Amino acid sequence: PRLSIESLISLFQKYVGKRGYNCTLPKTEFLSFMNAELAAFTKNQKDPGVLDHVMKKLGTNNDGQLDFSEFLKLIGGLAMACHDSFLKAVPSQKQT
């Protein structure tokens, strides 16, 4: 499915509003988001602490929560990884 700016905002708001937060994604909701929306990523991880590591790496201010800009870093990083995988899977074409 195609993602739009509105759907990214809606997705973020879906998880930040669950416990009364409206601007940040606490760790519990981050884990819920990852397990529900990115299950393929989380299920393929061999390290059980990978989600903690991801959240710590994304959280630039060390408050244990992700704001929208930190959330977008996650989405951007995943998009880059998917794009790289796509490029590796497609046979290279010589430019003429």
TrEMBL record:
Check the UniProt entry and state the signal peptide residues, or none. none
Query: Locate the EF-hand domain: which residues?
Result: 46-81
Which PROSITE patterns is this protein grouped with? EF_HAND_2
Write one Gene Ontology MF term.
S100 protein binding
Source taxon at top rank: Eukaryota
Q: Which Gene3D superfamilies match?
A: EF-hand (1.10.238.10)
**A cellular-component GO term for this protein:** cytoplasm
Please identify the protein, giving its name as recorded.
Answer: EF-hand domain-containing protein
User: What organism does the UniProt record list as the source?
Assistant: Gorilla gorilla gorilla
